[in-house]
Amino acid sequence: MEVVNSAVTIISDPEKCRTWVSQHKSSVKAYISLAIFCVVVFFFLSDGDFSFLLTLSSLTSAFSFAMVCLKIEITKSCAGVSLRMMEAYVILIFARLCSIIPFEGYLPYDRSGDWLYQTLEASCMIIAGTIVYLCRYRYKETYDPNSDEFNSMYLIIPAFLMALVFHPSLNSWMPADIAWTFALYLESVVVLPQLFMFQKERKVVPFTSHFLAMQAVSKVLAFIFWISSYTELNDPSKVLKKHVGYWVIIMQIVQLALMGDFVYHYARCITRGVPVQFILMENV
Q1: 205 with 278: CB under 8 angstroms?
Q2: Are 277 and 205 in contact (CB under 8 A)?
Q3: How far is the C-alpha of 61 from the C-alpha of 218, rounded, in Å?
Q4: How many CB atoms lie within 10 A of CB 278?
Q5: What is the CA radius of gyration of the chain?
Q6: How many other β-carbons are positioned within 10 Å of the β-carbon of residue 48?
Q7: How far is Cα 265 from Cα 284, in angstroms, rounded to an integer?
Q8: Beta strands in 89-185 (DSSP E)
Q9: DSSP structural state of residue 17
Q10: For the segment 135-149, what is each residue's pLDDT rounded down to a tens digit?
Q11: Which residue ranges make up each domain of the chain?
Q12: Are 160 and 182 in contact (CB under 8 A)?
């Protein structure tokens, strides 16, 4: 409620609104550009179907990866970026592509599912892979492995084992169904290395916080779609798949819960005009 009140105060006061925009000029430009691009895609590259939310989610995610990659190149520094998180993203997006490129079971129903959704997911993997390269090689002297200690294998292995047992069958081919489910389960917890890195360093790099905020928006969009469609993932004829749709929703709720506290403090910083690098301060 405090965040909402602060936002309303800013919007209702022209002077405060101008001050806020000037303080967040670069972010405002980026988000406006994204919004315009989303509108263009919606009207010209989709049929306006509800399933476009999946494409919109992927588009938002691609934007967040591009923002991180661009900032790293501009600053010539990978400081504050979790390499372990980015490596896990590459793995999960690759798994998803193995499911959505040869098959159609998990694609948006509208025209954006013909090629755009897959292209956006491939773009996410390429950009995430580029970030991994920048951290490991080009700007490796700016990357601090001592702050990025969360072992992503603790996330990857359980996600894969869960996917082996609880997976839907929309592709009608088990490896592809497992790959899609593995990607979804891993994506639910993939931000943990970055959050642990924040706590370890006790500081937040602004563009990394914007990345997580945009990822949260992306996941909310996907959640809205699946909360209305999860029953299609259930297979009443098989015991383990009878309630698999509920597992999908539960894992997405876990994801939103993990990011919820960060997003709340991020929103407080934004609405109060406090630089996001101070997001971990107790009085923010």
Answers
A1: no
A2: yes
A3: 6
A4: 14
A5: 19
A6: 10
A7: 7
A8: none
A9: H
A10: 999 999 999 999 999
A11: 1-278
A12: yes
